[in-house]
Amino acid sequence: MARILPSLADVHHDPTHESGARMTDPVFIDDEMHQQLARQWLAPRARDANKGDFGPLLVIGGAPGYSGAALLAAETALRAGAGATLVGCAPETASVLWLHRPELMARAVRTRADLLPLLARARVVVAGPGLGREDWAAQLWPTIAEAGRVQVLDADGLGWLADNPQQHPARVLTPHPGEAARLLGGSVAAVQVAREAAVRELQARHGGVVILKGAGSLVCDGERLWQCPAGNPGMATPGMGDVLSGLVGALLAQGLPLFEAAALAVSLHARAGDLVAAAAGERGLLASELWPALRRLLNPEPI
Ligand SMILES: NC(=O)C1=CN([C@@H]2O[C@H](COP(=O)(O)OP(=O)(O)OC[C@H]3O[C@@H](n4cnc5c(N)ncnc54)[C@H](O)[C@@H]3O)[C@@H](O)[C@H]2O)[C@@H](O)CC1
Ligand SMILES: Nc1ncnc2c1ncn2[C@@H]1O[C@H](COP(=O)(O)OP(=O)(O)O)[C@@H](O)[C@H]1O
């Protein structure tokens, strides 16, 4: 893979800020930067590639009643190029996943003891989609939190983190404004009125990389702050965040560093949402409808 992407200091920024530009101004992931990211990190695969090169990825979630969230994250990971993809889910959920997507390896997790071998196998863990807030998730959370694997924490994973704050350097957090408010102990309005400050504060408290979702999603690693101008309100639909967490996990499993995986996933996700909305309208968009558009964007024409 080619060189690391430019840092905040050496990329272009809004020319209207030229004179008084601060190091903290967000860098826009515009078309040019998106193409640069895609060229750099989505090169054609080696001819002798095998599925072990891009995994295993483990999704932990899918409490009873929430099979859809785990399925959306795990299937997105597969469709975004993850190799072996496992799901550690509640026993009630496993058969739903097997039946719906046989390419996934769904494993019924009853206790911490069932989770340990899955964590030992995984290269990347996406924890939280449909994890829930009940006893099943409560007994698993300490094991998830302690796992030394590269992690994406989403949805209920962020709820558990809010209750049990801790740093983890190899982690991507993907809060929406409601989850960010909970993590910060404030209101959604306070997050939305100062989104840059909120994402920086979350990163400072928890380490790793933070994606603050919503219109103009922000990606921050403590040094770089990037903003995605793509995306549309049609994406305010259930499961859209699960698709993003699966996508971040898939890029991590394919070897992208933390920040680049987060930034490229946010950009691909938003652009796929825009392609689908342009073709059929914003209203009524389903999260899983992003898959064909994502696949096209993930396999750019060689230049
Ligand atoms: N098909 C499925 O099984 C799905 C399950 N899901 C799972 O359902 C569980 C609970 O998710 P919920 O959707 O109830 O919880 P959320 O945390 O997404 O939403 C709870 C409340 O937070 C607030 N909120 C949400 N998004 C916000 C935003 N962008 N700005 C401001 N406030 C916001 C709203 O008041 C909302 O009612 C999670 O485990 C999640 O993964 C969801 O991912 C959706 C799809
Ligand atoms: N108005 C909007 N403009 C751009 N993107 C949006 C908008 N609303 C939602 N999104 C995107 O859709 C996704 C929604 O995620 P989330 O709120 O976690 O949904 P869910 O919990 O239902 O999966 C995020 O990536 C967010 O950035």
UniProtKB/TrEMBL annotation:
Per UniProt, the keywords (alphabetical) are: ATP-binding, Lyase, NAD, NADP, Nucleotide-binding
Q: Region (Disordered): which ranges?
A: 1-20
- Family matches, as Pfam families: Carb_kinase
Recorded hits in InterPro entries, A to Z, give: CARKD, Ribokinase-like
Molecular function per GO = ADP-dependent NAD(P)H-hydrate dehydratase activity; ATP binding; NAD(P)HX epimerase activity
Does the keyword Metal-binding feature in the UniProt annotation? Answer: no
UniProt KW Signal keyword: no
- Specify the domain of life of the species encoding this protein: Bacteria
Instruction: Show which residues constitute the signal peptide.
Output: none
Stated EC number for the protein is 4.2.1.136
Q: Describe, as the record does, how this protein assembles with itself and its partners.
A: Homotetramer.
Q: What is this protein called?
A: ADP-dependent (S)-NAD(P)H-hydrate dehydratase
Source organism of the structure:
Amnimonas aquatica
